[in-house]
C-alpha cells in the first residue's frame, strides 16, 4: 500500500519503510510559499551574528518563495510564526543571505524565538505584510496573506524547486564554483534548508553521481542522466547547480536518501521535484 501525506509544503509518498518527498511545484504566475523548514532550535552558531546581531543560539527557519523576493520590501514585520500551543512570534530579523547569488533570492531566513521543538514547535509561517517579488520574471507579486506549514525539526532537507537557468545567470556564480563553459544546460535545485555532508564538507563527485536528472524528448520518451559537474558550491546555502552536457529539456530531478544533512544533522529523505523554466513563472 502507498500512502501520500504532507510534510510542510511537500508531499511524501510512503511505500514500506522509505519515503519519497515530492515537491509541490508547478509553473504558475501566482505567488506561493514552497516550504518553511525548522532548521535549528536555539542553536544558530556564533557566526550567525554576521547575518543578524543577536542570532547566536536562536532558532532558524528558512522559507522558500515561488518567486525571487524584492529585498527593499523585506521586513521582520512581514512574518508571523505560529506555534502549536497558540503562540505568535515575529522574527528578530530576516535575511536573504546566504542564498544571495543572482536568481537565488527566494529563500528568506527567519531568525528568532519560535517555540520549542519538543513542547511547542512552530507549525505555521504566515505573511502578514506587503512583501513583494522583485519582478525579475513578470510583474511584481504580493505575498501578503500566504501561509505554509512548517516542516518539523527532525525532518531532513528535501528538494523544493528545480529550474532551468540561462547562462547569463549561472555564469555569475562565485568564481571557481560555477558550471564549466562547455555546459549545455544548467538546472538549479533548491533544498528546503542548507545542505552539506555529515562531516561538514561540501558535496563532491560521489554526491554528483547520486543526482538524477530526467530528460524528456520531443516524442515523450525519457532518459535519466547524471550531471557532469556541480556548481554553486562553497557558499553554505541551499542551492546547487547541476551542469549538463545535453540540450534535451530537463523534466525532473531526484536525489536518494541518507547522503546530505541539514544544519541540525538530519539526513535527507528520497526526494523528487519537477523542473520548471524561470520564464514560465
* CATH C-level category of the largest domain: Mainly Beta
> What sequence of helices (H) and strands (E) makes up the elements?
EEEEEEEEEEEEHEHEEEEEE
In CATH, the architecture of the largest domain is: Sandwich
Average of the residue pLDDT scores: 88
Counting DSSP H or I runs of 4 or more residues, the number of helices is 2
Q: Main traits of this protein?
A:
eight-stranded mixed beta sheet; 281 residues; disordered N terminus; 2 domains; Immunoglobulin-like; mainly beta; eleven-stranded mixed beta sheet; globular
Describe this structure in words.
There is one protein chain. With 281 residues, the chain is mostly beta strands. The protein folds into two domains: 2-151, Immunoglobulin-like; 159-280, Immunoglobulin-like, CATH 2.60.40. It contains two helices and 19 strands. The strands form two sheets. Strands 1, 2, 3, 12, 13, 14, 15, 16, 17, 18 and 19 form an eleven-stranded mixed sheet that branches. Strands 7-6-10-11-4-5-9-8 form an eight-stranded mixed sheet, with no helix packed on it. The longest helix is centred in the middle third of the chain and has 4 residues, at 167-170.
Amino acid at each position: 500500500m502507498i500512502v501520500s501525506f504532507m510534510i510542510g509544503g511537500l508531499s511524501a509518498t510512503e511505500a514500506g519503510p522509505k519515503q519519497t518527498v515530492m515537491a509541490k511545484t508547478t509553473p504558475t504566475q501566482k505567488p506561493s510559499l514552497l516550504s518553511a523548514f525548522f532548521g535549528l532550535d536555539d542553536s544558530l552558531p556564533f557566526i550567525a551574528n554576521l547575518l543578524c546581531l543577536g542570532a547566536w543560539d536562536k532558532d532558524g527557519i528558512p522559507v522558500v518563495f515561488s518567486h525571487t523576493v524584492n529585498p527593499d520590501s523585506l521586513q521582520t514585520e512581514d512574518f508571523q510564526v505560529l506555534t502549536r500551543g497558540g503562540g505568535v512570534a515575529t522574527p528578530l530579523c530576516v535575511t536573504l543571505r546566504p542564498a544571495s547569488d543572482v536568481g537565488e533570492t527566494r529563500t528568506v531566513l527567519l531568525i528568532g524565538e519560535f517555540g520549542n521543538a519538543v513542547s511547542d514547535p512552530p507549525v505555521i509561517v504566515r505573511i502578514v505584510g506587503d512583501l513583494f517579488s522583485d519582478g525579475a520574471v513578470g510583474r511584481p507579486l504580493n505575498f501578503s496573506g500566504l501561509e505554509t506549514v512548517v516542516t518539523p525539526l527532525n525532518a531532513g532537507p528535501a528538494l523544493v524547486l528545480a529550474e532551468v537557468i540561462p547562462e547569463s545567470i549561472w555564469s555569475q556564480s562565485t568564481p571557481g564554483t560555477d558550471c564549466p563553459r562547455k555546459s549545455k544546460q544548467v538546472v538549479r535545485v533548491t533544498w528546503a534548508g542548507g545542505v552539506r555532508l555529515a562531516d561538514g564538507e561540501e558535496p563532491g563527485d560521489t554526491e554528483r553521481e547520486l543526482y538524477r536528472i530526467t530528460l524528456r524528448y520531443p516524442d515523450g520518451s525519457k532518459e535519466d542522466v547524471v550531471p557532469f559537474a556541480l556548481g554553486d558550491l562553497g557558499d553554505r546555502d541551499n542551492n546547487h547547480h547541476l551542469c549538463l552536457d545535453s540540450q534535451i529539456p530537463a523534466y525532473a530531478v531526484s536525489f536518494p536518501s541518507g547522503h546530505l544533512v541539514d544544519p541540525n544533522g538530519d539526513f535527507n529523505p528520497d526526494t523528487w521535484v519537477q523542473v520548471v523554466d524561470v520564464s514560465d513563472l
